[in-house]
Amino acid sequence: RASLSRQSAMNYFTRQEMEGSVRYSGKCRIGNWNENDILDEVRLKDYIAKKEAGTLRMDKFNKRMATALQPVELTKDASDEYVHFGDVVQLENVTSGAVVAVDVESRDPRPAENACAVSASFHVDACARNTFTFEPYVPRTAKAAAMLPMYDDDVLHYGQKVKLAVNTAAIEGSDWDVATCYLKSFTVSQTHFAKFSRRCEVVASGNDSYECVFEVLTPDPAKRLVSEGVPVMAGAPIVLLHCQTNQCLCVGTHGFANDFGKELEVCGHTETSVGNSYKMEGLATGVPKSLKERAPQDCNVFAIVGKPTVVA
Length: 312
Hints:
By secondary structure, the protein is an alpha+beta fold. 22% of the residues lie in helices and 24% in strands. The strands form 2 sheets. Strands 1-12-9-8-5-4 form a 6-stranded antiparallel sheet, with no helix packed on it. The chain is elongated, with a radius of gyration of 28 Å.
C-alpha cells in the first residue's frame, strides 16, 4: 500500500493527459498544473517581448499593408499632354479595368532570381504597389545603341524601347535588399512559366537585364509604321511588347486570391483573334495573309494613367 501511494504521488500527469488529450490550464490544480502555470508565464513574456519589438505576425502584416497601400500622387504636368520619363503612372488594362501591381513580399524562393510576384489588382487607387515609372533603355555597347532611334527630349515615343521601374516606395518599407526592380518576363521553360496559364512568366526583378526591356507600340499593326516616333499621350492605348520573348504584356482571366484580395494573373502572351477580317481584307487588296499581322486583343491593351488628358 505504501509503494502504491508513493507511485500515485509521483504521477504528475492525469490519465487523459497521458492519452494525448487536452491538458488542464495552470489555474486548475489537477495534473501537472505547476508546469502549465510556468509555461503560461513564458508564453505571456514572449508575447510582450514580440509586441514591444513589433515582430508579431499581425504587426508584420499591418506593416506590409501600410507599405504596399500607402497613397502615392500620380504625376500631373499641365504643360503638355504627353507621358514623360520619370512620371509616376499606372498601367490600366482596358478590358478588366485592373491595374498592374507588385507584391514585394511574395518573392521567388530561389535566391538567384531576386524577383517578386506581379498581378493585376482591382484596387485602382494610386498606391506604392501599383505605380511605375518609364525609363529609356540604354544598350551597353555603342554598336547596339547606334541601331536604336535617338530622341532629344524626355517624352515617351511609340516604337521606343523602355523599362518599367516599380515605385521605390513599395521596396523601401520591406526587407527586400534591392535599390530598383523592373518588370521582367521569361520564355516558357521548366523553371519559368506563369502559375495558372502556363504562359510566359512576368515578375518584378532586381536583376537588370535585356529581359526587362519592352517596346511601346500602338494596338493597330497597320499604324505602327506611321506612328513610330510619335509621342505617347496620357490615356492613349498602348501595347507593351517584350523584346526578348516577342510576346505582349497580358492580363488574363485567371483569378486568384492573395493578401490584397482577388486579383488577375499577368503574363506574357499575344492574344489574337481568328483573323477572318484580316484575311478578307488581304484578299481584297492583294496582300498575302502571311504578311498581314493580326491585332492583339483588349487583354493586351493598356492605358497609361497619370496625366489629366485622356485620348478618346
